């Protein structure tokens, strides 16, 4: 197995642990929290940003696996369960890809037609890393929006403290 796969597996475990904690938090929170606006200069709500995080995970996992890419508009986002279903599907596809990933597979160039950036050519390894760290960045945005609306007291998100990577 390529050493990069082991590192990516560790990063994926961190993401999975954090994402599960977010699911638990949103399940316990009032439903309207998902519809909080992201703030000045930002488009959308927490719901649209969570959907964006998970859609990126799913669509890149599908590209890595050589599967048809889901249409963004077809992904249901009415409930916490529907949103996290997108993530679970993405995680499953990504996990199967990682299980069989070889150095050759990780170096393969993927061509992606993205919604906002157009055509992108990247190595599979780069796509994997992006699909994992992309969400980390956006979850930090969500945490800040929640704090601004009085929903503090979230857990520590640091890599060093995550039990999935110990």
CATH fold call? Four Helix Bundle (Hemerythrin (Met), subunit A)
Describe the global form: globular
Strand order of the largest sheet: 1-2
Structural class call reads mainly alpha
Radius of gyration: 16 Å
Just name the CATH architecture.
Up-down Bundle
Question: Number of helix segments?
Answer: 5
How many structurally independent domains? 1
Strand content: 5-15%
Q: Given this structure, which CATH class is correct?
A: Mainly Alpha
The percent range for helix content is 55-70%
Average pLDDT, rounded to a whole number, is 90
Question: How do you describe this structure in short?
Answer:
With 166 residues, the protein is mostly helical. It has helices at 3-28, 46-65, 80-100, 103-107, 124-148, and strands at residues 109-114, 118-123. It has a single domain (3-165), classed as Four Helix Bundle (Hemerythrin (Met), subunit A).
Describe the secondary-structure layout.
Layout (H helix, E strand, L loop, with lengths): L2 H26 L17 H20 L14 H21 L2 H5 L1 E6 L3 E6 H25 L18
Antiparallel strand pairs: 1-2
Helix pairs in contact: 1-3, 1-5, 2-3, 2-5
Can you tell me about this structure?
With 166 residues, the protein is mainly alpha-helical. It has a single domain (3-165), classed as Up-down Bundle (Four Helix Bundle (Hemerythrin (Met), subunit A)). Helix content is 58%, strand content 7%. It has five helices and two strands. The protein has helices at residues 3-28, 46-65, 80-100, 103-107, 124-148, and strands at 109-114, 118-123. Helix 2 runs antiparallel to helix 5. The model has no long low-confidence stretch (mean pLDDT 90). Belongs to the DinB family. GO terms for molecular function: metal ion binding.
